[in-house]
TrEMBL record:
One of its GO terms (molecular function) is acyltransferase activity, transferring groups other than amino-acyl groups. This is N-acetyltransferase domain-containing protein. The keyword Transferase applies. Residues 18-193 form the N-acetyltransferase domain. Transmembrane segments: none annotated.
Length: 417
């Protein structure tokens, strides 16, 4: 998920001097980019991750059903000193059992939906922190959320980002909610082999939608507009892994409905999202020795690909990534099929010129063991914080979602990574 880098608050500027308004791309673009650059200065002597939004400050929210970017400027000088992005969508917050008809005693599990808002990209210029700007931006964004019917607001931040955690939990009324894992794997110069015991099938967007809605719509944070996600130009495809010889192949694929009527004992699925065309990342602060070592591993990997050396990709200049989402499956061998799907996704990323592939899964996700990743590049516990925006909502059997225990799985929307 996109994280929030914060940003605490002192007070030498009167609150009335801070004007919060909607971002205007025709006049604010340069100033916003300058604030982004000032906020990306990492600790001296340490590695830092920089994000290049490719000239589009709202690129990470614009694919959501509703989105907004606000800026904070000084009324006296018109200098932009902060910004925040937010978006709204409808997602699953729980599930319930429902009987089909009075004459049919069978029951099925149905999702309970809620309208939820997401905050990301909160920035305050280093020279204007501790002045109440971050808190004011959050409150103004929350006003827009409420006006548009959002029942909850949530965000992702690093567990050790104490300023951010303090702002949201102590100042803005958020509570710690979920701690998913961000798993990142480098893309090597060699291709990864896909097990010959597995058959991979690329699904059409309609088949992918049918499979996700019928099997995963009760997963927490599943987006009700999954069709919009799957039909987005950034979606590179949904891939299904099944046992070789089970009767399902690409040429003879009967469709998702028939597959779900008679699935094999084990199978797995995931989708691939092209973040490379949205933003680029860059690792800065690396020593010359570290860069030389990384370059050496790439050279060996390039000229001796048959050795399948675990080379370090070029991360010290702007690079792209692919995000794996909608990861799921069933059966005793599902994790092995996930591993095959991840190998295929790695090869797609290699062809697409990306340096890493990443995914985010619930901490308790049983398929997590099938996702290859480098611990040094990954985050064991990302932190999601949540806030209930009102008390007049009917959540059925869920009650107050902010107090619900975590489930085994979570659906991470690629539009917000």
């Amino acid at each position: 998920m996109g994280t929030v880098r914060e940003i605490e608050i002192n007070s030498s500027i009167n609150e009335s001097e801070i004007v919060v308004r909607e971002f205007d791309p025709s006049k604010d673009l340069t100033s916003v980019e300058e604030v982004e650059k000032r906020c990306e200065v990492g600790p001296s002597g340490k590695l830092s991750l920089f994000t290049d939004l490719l000239g589009d400050p709202i690129c990470r929210v614009r694919h959501s059903p509703a989105f907004l970017m606000l800026v904070a400027e000084l009324s006296s000088t018109k200098e932009i000193v902060g910004m925040i992005r937010g978006c709204i969508k409808t997602v699953t917050c729980g599930k319930k059992l429902s009987r089909n008809t009075k004459n049919d005693p069978t029951t099925k599990t149905l999702p309970i939906y809620t309208k939820v808002a997401y905050i990301l990209g909160l920035r305050v210029s280093p020279s204007h922190r501790r002045m109440g700007i971050g808190k004011k931006l959050v409150h103004r964004m929350e006003e827009w959320f409420v006006q548009n019917g959002a029942e909850y607001s949530y965000l992702a931040t690093e567990n050790d980002n104490h300023a951010s955690v303090n702002l949201f939990t102590n100042k803005c009324g958020y509570s710690k909610f979920r701690t998913p894992s961000v798993l990142v794997n480098p893309v090597f110069a060699h291709r990864l082999p896909v097990s010959n015991r597995v058959t991979l099938i690329k699904l059409s967007s309609s088949d992918a939608e049918s499979l996700y809605r019928r099997r995963f719509s009760t997963t927490e944070f599943f987006p009700r507009d999954i069709d919009s996600v799957l039909n987005n130009s950034l979606n590179l495809g949904t891939f299904l892994a099944v046992p070789r010889g089970c009767g399902y192949t690409q040429p003879s694929w009967p469709g998702a409905d028939q597959f779900l009527f008679d699935p094999p004992e084990s199978w797995a699925v995931l989708s691939v999202w092209n973040c490379k065309d949205v933003f680029r990342l860059e690792v800065r602060g690396a020593s010359r020795m570290r860069k030389t070592l990384a370059k050496t591993t790439r050279i060996l990997d390039k000229f001796l690909p048959f050795l399948r050396l675990p080379s370090i990709p070029e991360l010290f200049r702007p690079f792209g990534l692919h995000f794996l989402y909608g990861l799921g499956g069933e059966g005793p061998s599902a994790a092995k099929f996930v591993k095959a799907l991840c190998a295929h996704a790695h090869n797609l990323a290699k062809e697409g010129g990306c340096s890493v592939v990443a995914t985010e899964v619930a901490n308790l996700e049983p398929l997590k063991v099938g996702v290859p990743h480098w611990k040094r590049l990954s985050c064991d516990e990302d932190l999601w914080c949540i806030k209930r925006l009102g008390e007049d909502y009917s959540d059925g059997s869920v009650g107050d979602w902010t107090k619900s225990p975590p489930g085994l799985s979570i659906f991470v929307d690629p539009r917000e990574f």
